[in-house]
Amino acid sequence: MPDPMRIRATEQPDGVDVRVLMSHEMEGGQRRDSAGKLVPAHFISNVTVTHNGKPVLTAEWGPAVSKNPYLQFKFKGGKKGEKISVTWIDNKGETRTDEATIG
Amino acid sequence: MIRNRREFVKVGGVLGLMAAAGLITMKEAQAQQQAWNKAAFDTKSVEDTVKALGGSATAPSGDIAITAPDIAENGAVVPVAVTSKIPNTQGIYVLVEKNPNTLAAGFMIPAGTEPSVSTRIKMGQTSNIHAVVKADNKFYVATKEVKVTLGGCGG
User: What integer pLDDT is reported at residue A90 of this predicted model?
Assistant: First the structure.
């Protein structure tokens, strides 16, 4: 089971500010190990953020996103106390979902 | 009785294996289902990426702001923020011209979400970053050069 994400969602006058820090190695597939063999790519390919079951952001990522990816964006229509949910899936089919309450 | 039980265990084991196999393929199918645009992520030039995303040409736009450092000391972690002021922005894509594969990340922006995202990307060497914005099915682009003193792809 991958490590949990750190999610912070705060209500601001112009919308809800969402910051997510995921825990993932994001192996690029270009690096060689000590034996000279290519380390196979292993990265988060899809991210979905939902608020009340409605997607507020979806992302497709390639291996060029940094290790332990960070994501920040804003959406309108969220209120304090409501929940948002973040799901990622990597190219090996591993997945993780975490929830946070808007503060 | 004993024979039956053995057979039962055997069948159970096979079923378990099948389920395990099924589970793995199911997970893979799920990942596939999420429509990861492999063609776009395999492209090696800005024009090809835009083509793979379904556009034909990009128009330079002053309404796209890229926030990234002028000089990145560590190419493995380059903070990039893209803000679009173009109405009806549907998608924001971050492209790095000289990376092995040009497209780094794509964000789909539904109505109600601000067309502004930040993330961190890897850069192999000094290169132009292109922020491509899809709005009303047209493509717009803005460019910024980031100098990298230590590459992020070799590790």
Answer: 93
CA distance linking residue B112 with residue A24, whole number of Å: 29
| Residues B135 and B105 occupy one common structural domain | yes
Q: Which of residues 94-153 of B touch A (CB under 8 A)?
A: 96, 99-101, 103-110, 112-114, 116-124, 152-153
- How many domains does chain B fold into? 2
Shared domain check, B68 and B84: yes
Give the pLDDT score at A5.
94
What region, left, alpha or beta, does residue B62 occupy, with left being phi > 0 and alpha being psi -120 to 50 degrees?
alpha
Domains, chain A, ordered by start: 6-101 (2.60.40.10)
pLDDT tens figures, B81-112: 999 999 999 999 999 999 999 999 999 999 99
Strand partners, B146: B127
**Residue B41 clears pLDDT 60, i.e. is over it:** yes
Which residue does chain B place closest to A90, by CA atoms? B31
Note down the domain range covering B126. Answer: 38-148
In a domain, B29, yes or no: yes
Q: Nearest by CB to B112, which of A60, A76, A95?
A: A76
Q: Give the phi and the psi of residue B100 in degrees, each rounded to 5.
A: -55, -40
Same domain, B68 and B126: yes
Q: Which residue has the higher pLDDT, B19 or A16?
A: A16
Work out the mean pLDDT of chain A and round it to a whole number: 93
A61–B81 CB contact, under 8 Å: no
Per DSSP, A62 falls in state -
ipTM of predicted assembly, 2 dp = 0.92
- Whether B53 and B103 map to the same domain: the answer is yes
